[in-house]
Amino acid sequence: MTAAATALHADAVRALDGWAVADPDQDRLRRDYLDHLADRPDGMWRACLPAHITASAVVVDPAGGRVLLTLHPKVGMWLQMGGHCEPGDATLAAAALREATEESGIPGLELLALDGAVRPVKLDRHRVHCTGKDQPANTHLDVQYVALAPAHAEEMISEESLDLRWFEYDHLPELTDVSVRDLVALARGLVD
């Protein structure tokens, strides 16, 4: 394993280990993620099966009271921006910010800092077919952040989305699952 891969793995452990979460279900997930990383030096990478860490960020425009969601081509649902860690990612937070910037097309996004530090806000474990439709499902251990968009930011759709749209917090699209709705509500509470 390269020095950069080892550093990213260590950063993920630090980010999760240092995150104090009051919700017992979220804390159980946090401990599961840490166990995964303790067992798997390759646990940050897409090739790590049956599970691997991913990073995402819900993009919000606090001034406009809106959230940007992407219509994911493989899932057919409106989701936050996110995806797999890459070798150039220095930190887990940097991976989330890179994904949010790439998928939204918005320059100048910043991750929300809580108590002076960028921290995850939520975890979500879900089954996916990221290695191909004809391959067995695997599990994403998603670490979620909040990305703040500049006021009046304009999105630019990428090849990773079918559509990209701003929604008012209280008017999310029907094709949004409870996990995304919970993440948006949490983000709204943190930025309002």
From TrEMBL:
Q: Please tell me whether the keyword Calcium is annotated for this protein.
A: no
**Transmembrane residue ranges:** none
Record bears the keyword Membrane: no
Xref: InterPro entries: NUDIX_hydrolase-like_dom_sf, NUDIX_hydrolase_dom
Please provide the record's keywords in A-Z order. Hydrolase
The molecular function terms in GO held by this entry are: hydrolase activity
Q: Which residues form the Nudix hydrolase domain?
A: 50-189
User: What is stated as this protein's family in its record?
Assistant: Belongs to the Nudix hydrolase family.
- This chain's protein is named NUDIX hydrolase
Lineage of this protein's species? Bacteria, Bacillati, Actinomycetota, Actinomycetes, Kitasatosporales
